[in-house]
Every structure is written in C-alpha cells, then in structure tokens.
Amino acid sequence: MRQSLSLFNTLTRRVEPVAPISEGQISLYTCGPTVYNFAHIGNLRTFLFQDLLKRAFRAAGYDVRHCMNITDVEDKIIRDSQGALAAGASNEERHAAMKALTDRFTTIFLEDLDNLRIQRADHLPKATDYIPQMIRLVQDLEVKGLAYAREGSVYYRIAGLPQYGCLAHLDREGMQAGASVDADEYERDSVTDFVLWKSAKPGEPWWDSPWGHGRPGWHIECSAMGMELLGDRVDIHSGGVDLIFPHHENEIAQSEGCLGHRWVNHWVHGEFLMVEGQKMAKSLGNFFTLRDLVAKGVDPIALRYAIQSNHYRKVLNFSFEGLRAAENSLKRIRAFRKRMEGEGQTGGGPWAEALDPKARLDQARLAFGSALADDLNTPEALAAIFTLISDLNAQDDHVALTREERDAVLAFLDETDAVFAAWPHETASLDTEVEALIEARRAAKGGKNWAEADRVRDQLKALGIVLEDRKDGTTGWRRF
RNA sequence: GGCGCCGUAGCCAAGUGGUAAGGCCCGGGACUGCAAAUCCCGUAUGCAUCAGUUCGACUCUGAUCGGCGCCUCCA
Asked: Residue A280 domain-assigned?
C-alpha cells in the first residue's frame, strides 16, 4: 500500500504531489558537503531534512535511490590545502595535499551522519572521480552553442537558455542589478554568465582538458554526477534554500541545456537555522558543530529531534532551551515505549471512557501518515503520536492493554521511528550486575530499609537507569 | 531597486472562512515509604496592529509596524 506524498516545489512555489517517473521508485539527488571543514549544525539541519525526506518516502512504500555528492575540489579546498606546499610543487603533490584534506573531512562528515542516524546515500560520488563526465558535459554544451571558451576557461551563455531564472524566479534585469564583479573572473560575454571550467592558475592543482590545464566549475559537478548516476530524468533534487540561486539554477541550465528537456521534476529546499535568535557566525560565538554540542553533553539524537520537530521550510531558531524541551519530549515517548514493552497492570476495572485501542491506533497511524504526506508536516505527525500516548496511557491505567494490543502499539512506534529515528527499540538486556542491584533494592524494601533502597536506586541512576515501582510490587526500569 | 518569507500562550509550534492541535515549562490534586512514571484539573474569549470583504476571519484583501532571506561564496 503506497501513499502519495506532496511536497512544496520551488519551481512552481506550490505544494504538489510527487508523481514518480518510474512506478514505486523515487530518484533523489541531494547536494552534499564541501569537505574542507567540520559541518556545522546549520549544514546538518539540511542533511537531517533530506534524511527525513528519504525516510518518509521509504515509509510510504517507495523504493528510493539516493545520490549525495561529496565536493572534493573547490576554491576553498584549494585555499586550505595548498598553503604548506612549495611554489614549485608538482601537480601530483598538489592533488595529494588536496586529497589529504578532503579525505579527512569526508570521514568526519560521515561520522556526524552516523551519530545523527542519517542514512547513507546509495551513491556518494566524489567530484574528482567524475572529471571525464564533467568535461564531456562542457563539450556538449559547447557544441550546442551554450558554452564558450575564453583564455582556457569555459563559460555558460545564459542568453542561450530561455528558461534561465525559472527556479529562482529572477529575471535578467534583476540579476544584472545585483550582480557583482568577481575579480577572479576572466572575460565573459555577460557578467551573469557563469564558469563551467576554470583554467588553472600557478600553484593550483589541475586536470588536463581540451581547454588546457584546469578544474571543474562550481556547478558542473552536480549536473554531471546526477545525470551519470540517476539518469536523464530525476524525481527530486534538494538542498538548502541558499542553493536555489545560483547553484540549482545553474544546474538546470547545464543539464537541461544538454538534455533538451526537463531534468528534475521536483525541487525541494530546506530553510536555514539561526542560533539564539541570531544568524550563526563564528564572530558571534554561536557557531556550533556537532562535536561542539556533544562536548557540551548534548545527545545528537536530541538535536535530531529538536530539528525535526520543526517544519523544514521554516527558519529554525536553535537554542539550548529548545534542546532541553526536545530531550524531555523524547523521554515521554521512550517511557511510553517501555511501558508498552512491559505487561499491563491488573486491577483497573471498568472505565466509562474506555476506547478501542486498535481503532485508536489506526486513527493515529492515519493521522501520522497524512501529516507526513502533506509536505512533511512533522509537527503534526508528532502530535498524532503524543495524543495517542495520552489516550493509551490513560486507558492502560484503567483497563490494561492486552499483550496483543501492546505489540500492535510497539509496531506503530517502530514504524514512526523508521522516520524519526529517535525512539528505537532498546535491545540491550540488563547486565547481571544491574539485575543484582534491583534485587538488592527489593530486599532492602522488604525490610523497610529505605536508606539502603534509595542508595541502590541512586547507584542505578548513576548508571543511567531510572526505576519505576509498579503497583504489583515489581520494578520497571528505563534509560534516561 | 527586484523577488520572496515570517510574526499564534512563558518557550517551541501545527492549523482552518465557522469559532485555537501537540510538545516543553509552570500551578493544584490522585497514586507512591519517598521517588519515578502515569492520570485528573488549570494555564491564548484570542492568533503583531489598523481598516476592509463576509452571516461569520486567526484563516481572504489592503495598509502599517516588527523580524528574516535571496538577487555574490554560503546548508
């Protein structure tokens, strides 16, 4: 049973159903990191949004093919990697220095993704592995009259593509007014033409090309890798809002100029993140990487939840207060999961407001799915979970849910966790040591030795375990 | 100058032309040896302001105030 999902499409600026090109399949291209430094939480918000996007489609029954590029050749990478080299260093040495930097930060980036439970893309192409494809694409654009060479560089002639500006909704005059002169540039026919291939300057690593020594431009790699790995027609392409212009606009120009038809159907963009009400900036001291937060004792999954409990198209104001709220919200969901994993208490008796747990569950499942299907409305999806928790907690207090009903609830929690990845089933069993402590406390309580009982409870708390005494005399526990 | 977004309770945040989801925090109560968890009750006659359209607007229109983004590298 596959559910149709709708997403805001930047091309049309409307929420539209995503109609897969291939039945039951979604091809997804997401712009990945430029690996020259640590990712900050703003970057990570975008990757979390894309993870949500992918998980939502998978949960809805689609087979998603996801490609995320790793940009490992770019001006800042060159700037940060070549400093230690002598002026006379060989091209091989320059490439090696660049690779050392990008390998290091690629590894770190992937670790960050793992810590945030962001699923790996099916394809993680490095730009430097696709130089021949990029060169061919530029050549193709040259043949079609959409590109021209100047002094070893190649530029895209945007005057040759009528739809240029369709994504950012800019007209040529608007662009001219805002265009600034890049001192780095050579002679272009129009100031708004952008570079496809950059000729190498002294001290820069280079590849051989029909135009001489050089490297790919900033935008060509996504077009080349996207078309190579996902094909001539792609369902969804996403990134942060800042990529709408010029990056994605230029990708459209490159790919559609080459293909002669629509390349991507749905363009989806995630909003920015602010910190404590201000734009994140190193100078303001509010610039955080995931590592910075972990060093402050923040659980990456709390960050994940805090970010995903807000709508992806709204500016998110990151704050430590918000993080605390996220942690407490997660506790409620996890405590409920733990309650459902255990057995119901006896002695409730009839209850006038009793409901049918199965029907209530179906209602929650429907609400959850509908919310996500409506432009990834995560706040509403979470509300569906919380209202279910409230209702079933009350129910279970009065009329204990059966084992079968509890298992059905757990299955639903698994389904929702497949999207949010924040309240997984805890497979860890109690260590014998912990079991012994709980038994010791039980004995102390039996002898009304409250001091000893409290001491043992504190000891378990230090191990990250909270106890919950039940009416029937047994003791439950959970991690916090 | 051009294009666009946002302003809902202490904080976060959904939402609809027909009378304000959810989470966190806070207060009262129940349960408990004490806790924890849970439950019950309470917490915006009002959704920036002012006009207008309408039987009816937080939801549509206009204006105003305030915050933000893009037009240049940036998630």
From this structure: no
Q: In this structure, how many other beta carbons lie within 10 angstroms of the beta carbon of residue A459?
A: 14
Statement to judge: residues A337 and A415 lie in one domain? yes
pLDDT (tens place) for every residue of chain A, 480 residues total: 699 999 999 999 999 999 999 999 999 999 999 999 999 999 999 999 999 999 999 999 999 999 999 999 999 999 999 988 998 999 999 999 999 999 999 999 999 999 999 999 999 999 999 999 999 999 999 999 999 999 999 999 999 998 899 999 887 665 654 444 444 445 678 888 999 999 999 999 999 999 999 999 989 999 999 999 999 999 999 999 999 999 999 999 999 999 999 999 999 999 999 988 888 877 777 889 999 999 999 999 999 999 999 999 999 999 999 999 999 999 999 999 999 998 887 655 677 778 899 999 999 999 999 999 999 999 999 999 999 999 999 999 989 999 999 999 999 999 999 999 999 987 665 667 777 788 888 888 888 889 888 888 988 887 778 888 887 778 888 877
Number of domains in chain A: 3
Laid out side by side, the sheet with A316-318 consists of A278-279, A273-275, A316-318
Q: Is A393 within the bounds of a domain?
A: yes
Nearest nt (C1') from A178 Cα = B71
Residue A375 and residue A315 share a domain: yes
Q: From the CA of A91, how many Å to the C1' of B48?
A: 60
- Nearest nucleotide to A328 (CA to C1') is B24
Distance A390 CA to B38 C1' (A): 10
Spatial distance between the Cα atoms of A475 and A441, rounded to a whole number of angstroms? 10
On whether ipTM exceeds 0.90, the answer is: yes
Task: Please name the nucleotide lying closest to A469, CA to C1'.
Answer: B36
CA A214 → CA A74, A183, A202, A210, distances in Å?
Answer: 12, 18, 11, 10
